[in-house]
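QA checklist item 7 of 12: single-chain prediction sanity check.
[x] sequence parsed
[x] length recorded as 122
[x] structure emitted
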Amino acid sequence: MTTTRTARELAEAYFTAWEAGDFDTLRGLLAENVDFVGALGTASGVEAALAGLKGLGQVLEKIDMKVRVAEGDDVITWFDLHTSVAPPTPTANWMHVDDGKVTRIRVTFDPRMLLAGFERPS
């Protein structure tokens, strides 16, 4: 018997996998045609979305989840994004799920400190 995860469960698995750098698990959660729009860019398709998650994953230290609200196939997660290049960044992430996979992700935050951190010489 196959059990389909709820949108909330998918969101929890997504953030756990991303924080752990488990991109194989992330791939399994995303639809092939996942559509991502965020403050640092856009991505169409699973490969482009994973590339973006891996890129930010290089500086990701911790995801400090504050609240997650789910209604039907939609989930909004509010968290502080902790990175090695900037102070914690308050972030909102909205996901939409179809047929047990994440199909749409929208992320918003103030990117100024992250961008400044990326520009600092190593």
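[x] summary fact logged: The mean pLDDT is 94.
[ ] second reviewer sign-off
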